[in-house]
Amino acid sequence: MSFGEQPAYLRVAGDLRQKIVDGALAPHTRLPSQARIRAEYGVSDTVALEARKVLMAEGLVEGRSGSGTYVRERVEPRRITRTGYRSADDRTPFRQEQADERMRGTWESRSEQEPASPEVARRLGAEPGDRVMCTRYLHRTEGEPMMMVNSWEPLAVTGRTPVMLPEEGPLAGRGVVDRMAAIDVVVDNVQEEVGARPGLAEETVVLGGLPGRVVIVVSRTFFASGRAVETADVVIPADRYRLSYHLPVR
């Protein structure tokens, strides 16, 4: 194969993809059968099958048990805006760290103590098994689950203080910066890493979609004088939302 030449299955997938984008294959329309693809494009069963797999992997079509493969409805992704820290007087849906004024919604949360996993311990600079407060959040907008957040705080920092439970007490829901300030811990830095991966089964059960559907993961850690005082994973369905960063220029 010469440089730039596509395999047959990609050429077939590309043509079908264009028909979906153009509307020739409308949402909820059944994708041409493998036999029809083979006949129309003059390709083998293997090529036809691989082309269908490409479209399914791209999220353009979905299989329905006992019925066939259908074009998925195209949803225009909504924007989630992430900004720098805001004061308590300008709170936003994601506890000051997350913002999109047009996407007001509701939060559910629960907190419980647990031993730090090796990964959480690494991010917090702690030892595996050290006690942490784990708070799990689910955010809904217009009734639709849109974001999961798993947050971990070392009890070596917050234990036996009024802010040990992030969503209870006098500073409930005030965000990491304000809560830590209340116990004389000054947060002076935050690190975020953004990646993507297939959604875990338990994530897709909560957020909707099919197992393996791609999710955006924002791994965030707050620091006070170099010490990690909170780390969290924000999980967002990649096919329904986009992250938009608005950061100050200094």
Features of this protein?
2 domains; six-stranded antiparallel beta sheet; 250 residues; two-stranded antiparallel ribbon; Arc Repressor Mutant, subunit A; alpha+beta; Chorismate lyase; GntR family transcriptional regulator; single chain
Write the topology of this structure.
Elements: H1 8-22, H2 34-41, H3 45-57, E1 61-64, E2 68-71, E3 78-83, E4 106-115, H4 118-124, E5 131-141, E6 144-154, H5 155-158, H6 176-181, E7 189-198, H7 201-207, E8 214-224, E9 227-237, E10 241-246
Helix pairs in contact: 1-3, 2-3
Description:
The chain is an alpha+beta fold and 250 residues long. It has two domains: 8-71, Arc Repressor Mutant, subunit A; 78-246, Chorismate lyase-like (Chorismate lyase, 3-Layer(aba) Sandwich). The chain is built from seven helices and ten strands. It has helices at residues 8-22, 34-41, 45-57, 118-124, 155-158, 176-181, 201-207; strands at 61-64, 68-71, 78-83, 106-115, 131-141, 144-154, 189-198, 214-224, 227-237, 241-246. Strands 4-5-6-9-8-7 form a six-stranded antiparallel sheet. α2 crosses α3. The chain is elongated and about 70 Å long.
Short structural description:
The protein has helices spanning 8-22, 34-41, 45-57, 118-124, 155-158, 176-181, 201-207, and strands at 61-64, 68-71, 78-83, 106-115, 131-141, 144-154, 189-198, 214-224, 227-237, 241-246. By secondary structure, it is an alpha+beta fold.
